[in-house]
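Below: protein 1.
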Amino acid sequence: FLDSGDVSAARAALLAIARADREAGRLDAALDACLLLITVDPSDPALQLEIAANQMTRGWSHLAGEKLRLLGRLAKLEGDDPAVAAIAAFAAEHGLDPPGADSGPESVAPA
């Protein structure tokens, strides 16, 4: 898809591959799919949330929390209300404080 320039199809396919690989326990393969997509659209909230999900699965909650904090700031700056809601839902689902809960770097530390 990327070779043909169909970024939307590539995005959908790579996110589906990343989710399937993560759910099957193939975390390195899942991350590879994310890293391929990151070259196309690094600020895509769905992609960044998939990377955070991979990090949570690996037990890297601090990294996932930091990613959510930064992604939440970006989404708010861009006025991307659907992304802000998705980030808050992800945080709640994974037991993390929502981005912006406080102003410190630990604002999305594990609950």
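Below: protein 2.
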Amino acid sequence: ADNDPWVGLAFGATCANLSPAAPVKVAIWGFASASAPITGVLGAGPGCLLLNSADLIQPAVSPTATYSVSLPIPASPTLAGAALQLQVAELDLTPGNLATSNGLSITVGG
């Protein structure tokens, strides 16, 4: 995480050690955690898991080894205490090269 998640501010995170050969990066945000096997989906290897409910998908082209994402958190006090999950996937344009990151769990502060 690049900063703390607070109501009314943008939360940012950077995923590192990615492959520059995989230019398609995807931030996968969810309100619930999960552990769904995705082996074989777009060439994901054995053991690849989707670690959240995938409620918001943010695709981007980023031919670098890092990928920074940002999510504005509305200025609503009811969001304080809400849990969010983040995972990053990267897709090489050759078949069989989908990889996923570890998951990040955050709790929005008020």
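The chain has a mean pLDDT of 92.
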